[in-house]
User: Fold these one by one.
Assistant:
Number 1:
Amino acid sequence: MSGPVLVPILGDQLSRNLASLRGRTKDDTVVLMMEVVEEATYVKHHKQKIVLIFSAMRHFAAELRDAGWTVDYVRLDDEGNAGSFTGEVARAVEEHQPRLVSVVEAGEWRVREDMDQWADKFPCEVEILRDDRFLCPQAEFEDWAQDRTNLRMEFFYRAMRRKTGLLMTGDGKPEGGEWNYDTENRKPPKDGMSAPERAKFEPDAITCEVIDLVANRFADHFGSLATFRWPVTADEAQEAADAFFVERIEKFGPYQDAMVHGEDDLYHSMLSTSINLGLLDPLELCRRAEKSYHDGNAPLNSVEGFIRQIIGWREYIRCFYWYEMPHLQQANALDATRTLPEFFWTGETDMACLADCIRSTRDNAHNHHIQRLMVLGNFCLIAGIDPRDVQDWYLVVYADAYEWVELPNVSAMILYADDGKLASKPYAASGNYINKMSDYCGKCTYSPHKKTGEGACPFNPLYWYFMDRHRDRLESNPRIGRIYATWDRMGDDKQRDYLNSAEAFLETLEPARQGYARAEGG
């Protein structure tokens, strides 16, 4: 065939430096971009998440056209829209008669499975390129993981520091003499703490059009559209990054685990949506953070913590996802079977911490990592919520959630469903942790100081209920095994009070109705 090269670009590949675009000539390339209902509804994504992706796609397509590229852009409501990536590529192949389909590998297992069939479906050559926006090729991770029984991120992170040279001295040692400054990044919030507001962007005409589309087509999806202010272009994303590096990185480290009622962002960068879309280069952000340290504008603990989240955790979690798929989807080592409670969708609960986190999720399609792990996730862990329910919820509600990042974080990190291959222990905690790291408890119906019975913080009995239920599995764990000596010293009566209080609370939970996360039969 002598036709052009067809370059499909997915909604999370909005980078001008994408591997499939590099080296292409504009007069010999057709870029294909597709809004398809299958991707918007395989789970019922938060309304803001759909707006973010579709609006960013439309802006990116306009930028490519302005730069001289030919773009075949398929809108959701276009006549003949096949509703799936494969269906739309098939239509484009028939129309443009390309000699080659060149595509960057998909980030999600199910999409990559479809892509792998394209060579047999289409009458032209198909090449699937590595997504080199990520620093660690999968083969490199698998070489690192070989023969390891536990895949701890910390050791992977050190390898990535050496590979990139970030925060490394000339003699090959970590800046400041330590690899990890996490012990300096756990300060509880101060009274009245508030942070500079993150950069927010008024919806332009393109975004407003998408908001109207989503309001009409996805009215039964979770979330509010009224507060949509996410960056949808590379320029807006850079402006958001500028604001973070000027206004918030200094205190990001010390207070990255802090939680304050009504302060939804605190000192967090709020850049994950833009990074995961492709609007920001993660390595460039790390270099910029490093420069902030060397220029004396940010402390080492803040900069190291920021860099660790990107070249450590983000890179690691993506490789772990591909290493453990597809069985990670079904992992349930703790045999958790309880249905997700209704209040995860409505926010109607007397637990102030959960109510505030769910409110922020509804309004912003976002929580920061400690709210996700130690409030929402901790509850799901110790209450024994079914991993598939929790996975669906996290994938639905967060604007930065794609399966490659959501699934391992939920299944392995939050729920310990992989039996500890990723995490060294279950991240279970009582109300004391939430009381220490937040101001939620002062506004709550329940008391973190009351351990059992009426008025007790539900996290307290649920914690011991969880530990007792999984003693056979966890007692030998060196990081938490000593907890059982405390449990044994309580005596039968006190233990019974904890277990009875936990069971009484669990009986009050109303299971979520079907249809919130997936359509009936989905």
Number 2:
Amino acid sequence: MAIRYNADTKTFILETKNSSYLMKVSRYGNLLHLYYGGRVPDEDLDYLIIPADRGFSPNPNEAGNDRTFSLDSLPQEFSTSRSGDYRSSSMEIVWGRGASSWSGKVAGYEIYPGAPKIKGMPGLRALPGEEAETLVIRLEDPVSGFEAELSYGVFEEKDVIARSVMVINRGEEAARLERVMSATLDFMESDYDLIYFSGRHLMERGFRRIPVSDGIHAIGSSRGASSHQYNPFAIVCEKNCTEDYGQCWGVSLVYSGCFLMEAEKDQFGQMRVNAGINPRGFSFQLEPGAAFQAPQTVLTWSGKGLTELSHIYHRIFRENLCRSPYRKNTRPVLLNSWEAAYFDFDGEKILSIAKEAVDMGVDLFVLDDGWFGCRDNDDAALGDWTENRKKLGMGLCELSEKIHAMGLEFGIWVEPEMVSEESELYRRHPDWCLREPGRPPVRGRYQLVLDLSRRDVCDYIIDAMNSVLDKARIEYVKWDMNRSITEAWSALLDRNRQGEVLHRYILGLYYVMDQVILRHPDVLFCGCGGGGGRFDPAMLYYQPQIWCSDNTDAVNRLKIQYGTSFAYPVSSMEAHVSVCPNHQTGRTTPLNTRGIVAMDGIFGYELDPTKMTGEEKEECREQIRFYKKHYRLITEGDYYRLTSPYENRYLTAWQQVSQDRKKSLVSIVITDKEGNDAQRYVKLKGLDPDGFYRIEGWKGKYSGKLLMNVGIPVPGGLSEYEGIQLLLKMA
């Protein structure tokens, strides 16, 4: 059993293949955290908690004269609020005549087979035949009337524990929830580093590693989406932790909206990690009997460094979160029209681009922005989801038929959550936008955000998207979101509920995606949020791949895809070869290098093939042949970061290894070149140390032990921005 309860010691024991997670009911009913780390046989770890009389750390009333029991210093599973614990709380409520304290005590528990049930939001599911167990512990505070049901889903073989919380108002009056964390994780020590991923539009998910110092370090988003600026994923690790050595803990929030992650080092050298909905601008009114479901947080532990942690997340997200049939199906190689034409196209131009794409060996042509309404720039027509027959010279159905007749599949770009002020939809329904009354709206990209907290708005989007997909033969949809939310005010909610808008928006988005995507299970959906602005686990539940960044520069992409790889599998990262000089940076890199970098994801093109030479097209054909031949190795093989682009200025290298360790692909890109340069070597990983490998194009064979301990020499003839791929096969 992965979950059990020791009644003698009042201890809950959760076990995965390699980890143990223990918590204990205190003598006063509080749920205390004992341990999360490498698997241990012990079931009574009460000795780890040393009672002490701490000055200015209050004692709960039930402790009487016992000054050694204080919630201000004890490790908790779901912390109290206004009850003597001054650290960041798990939950904050306002009830009765304005009281805000909450002190939940264990009132019962349940263990049931299967994955946790997360109402209205994405969550991990168990595969057919896969064992999973769920523990639900009920914390009750009879004074406030609020209960918290803590959910722990244990995926034993995957080494994952999925946590969440359901908050229920059992009182007789309405009350207001102002903060709820999906998971609180208390550490008895704090001599750790915190790794998180930050950036901006065009440079998302940059790798950041800092020591945990006194106070609170917080990352998050208040932009309505998980954002370009921060990703809802963080790692706590030992200071000596590397890719291959040391303990580390991963915290990943399965949520697409405003989030908060905190790491707090307290006065006693302990650390608390919180993950949940961002309380900034958030409140949720709960009537008597009403419940609030918090998002799921996916936790894992590794005792073998960051690479093993990444492998755990890659596997669980690829297999237990993504539910598209394309989770297992081979994805088509596409060509997208955006950087090829932007808004400057007609039907004839699109067909000429598609015709040349066929000659390159592409499988799928995607018509990006500009095909609908009066959409000749980004100032108009969002919300009017009917084809522009005048611009295309035909209907979408006819265009799709012509492209299919060439032997290509057909895809389109949509941005369903937005509306332009210059649109028929806005003229009919100005109240459908998120905007404050009596104030001119804040604009982003000259567009407003539709109020997805309203069911009528959601139903309009569902009908509009289904109408397009039902009418024309479409195999791919790029679902974009190109602005952050500012005025989160809904015309249908009263003043006491406006703090619910941002969360209700996300629930509405999930509802819309359910209704559109479930109706079209054979369509490949790709997520996008101005590139990587909504690259989070919850989106993978609906869309098996996400456009990694609007930045297609191969050198910048080395850092973007490096940071993304810590939590997200290659199969989730859509990456394209684009034209040079690059449209975002002006940099020129070889076509071969652009192909190598784009193969570190779901491969495609973002250029105009009518302007390419015959030699360039032949090189693209060879790239596509290579990618398709080694698709499973690239997208499902174990992923290894061989160098860091933040630490190694000279080169960036990564590697995929098949599950049976018989094949491997090594990719290397030179990022800086010096005259009379030193000979550089790259040590490989993940190979069978007792096996021997041949490297395609090289003479001889080499032991896995040699390749991992000594490495391979990087060819000295490579120039700056040139790259190579080395294919290894077991001899």
Number 3:
Amino acid sequence: MKQLMLGNEAIARGAYEAGVRVSSAYPGTPSTEINENVANYPEIYCEWAPNEKVAVEVALGAAVAGARSMACMKHVGLNVAADPFYTATYTGVNGGMVVIVADDPGMHSSQNEQDTRMHAKASHAPCLDPSDSQECKDFMKLALDISEEYDTPVILRVTTRIAHARTVVELGERQERELRPYTRNIKKYVSMPGNMIGRHLYVEDREKRLAEAANTMSINRIEWGDRKVGVITSGAAYNYVKEAMPNVSVLKLGMAYPLPRKLIEEFANGVEELYIIEDMEPFYEETIKSWGIKCSGKDKTGVQGELFARKIAAKFAGEEEAGPMNTQGIPVRPPVLCPGCPHRGLYYILGKLKLTVCSDIGCYTLGALAPLNGVDTCVCMGASIGMAHGMEKARGKEQAKKTVAVLGDSTFCHSGITGLLNMMYNSSVGTVIIADNSITGMTGHQQNPSTGFDIHGNVAPQLNLEKLCESMGIKHVVVVDPYDLKKFEAVLREETARDELSVIISRRPCALIVKQPGIPFDSDPAKCKNCGMCMKIGCPAIRKTETGVKVDPTQCVGCGLCATVCPFGALNAKGE
């Protein structure tokens, strides 16, 4: 049977067919749908972990115990998981273990362009790079086989265009795998220096064997065409090359690391001019040049942004330069907080008090945009707390009273707890705001330890954020509704004035999950002075006209925040 599948959906299907028993992940675009689809297969134990480090540790534990396992994350998640992962390539596995990492060329929803192939080389882990959904499924199964044959975790790397594109997939049946026997082996699994010195020698030998085997793997294949030009490529770029340069010779690399040197040398000797066309860093190009093979690629495309067929045709096939991606005259539409978003009131007050705001990764990062303009810094998961602490230690307590850290409930569970503990332990003065919208919002409403539900929607133990903060010894923990602007402002003024650490939990569920009970609001033209105060909250349902503001009833959810800031009482629920 054939089915149209997302690349992420096909990876989940490959895990199912290959007999995976355990899957752990933290949601992150463009990887989120993998574990969501794995959860549809009851044969696989599936969970959302608090962060990617934990996810890899869970997968490793399952693999050492003899089960096939997987962990999923976006590219920056592998930074968080690098600690256990880099050592796992030394200890090896027992059952097969695959870490699926989704890169984001072009930064569609990420803070950087990071190439996971670099992690593969640095960690000595084999890395596969599929080009469509069928390969996503097939490569997932192959990665598990390689993992068991070569005693190593394997990276399956996808990019946004592969993760979120749909192509036809041939479905197969699940092949159940018996648990491999677990044998206690201290020299293998206990990463003490004396043990790992020996394991490093094994890793070096394994890498040589994999590089040799790569020369004959079917996933690395030559497609001979016009031999005047040869292209080495992989992943999404392979599809663009085939569209833009259909007649050239192509070496398609299914294994991104280690590279098949003999096969590459054979291909290079068979063409007159060699191009390397790859998304992101010149990973292939630099390695191939180091072997003394003449080639080029990044001198034409650069390393920034993602590739696409028109760009390749212009740079390598001499076609007319591609026109602008954005139609002229149409304004850019950046993402905004949704109508009724609880974070809007939070950032309105932060901006009003002109505080320095160290924000974090999540929906609330959008508070940086006009008209809220409420964010000063945003780096990575959990960095808001550490950076606020660092500012206080650099500039003193008076700076701390003007600085707050803002992060969501999921981000707090991911990386914020240790940062808050550090502030308490080191006698920091400052205010941390946990924007608790009761879900992992930015990636599409996944559960987390503070929501009270697991990945399947079943009731689960719920982390009590207030008690956790109090257990650290924080004396001032206040819960406030961000829709109540007057109270929120009063609480914020009080807590930032303290000479000790305090936590504000800004609590109201995401408006996309818990629909507002009110009816849409409207403006009374007789009362509206067109002063623009309601525009300062940045609600997309409100627009300003020459005769006064108008509220779009198709977008308004009736939260009433606009009425709170209107000084003339011009905004009310319809009919009132």
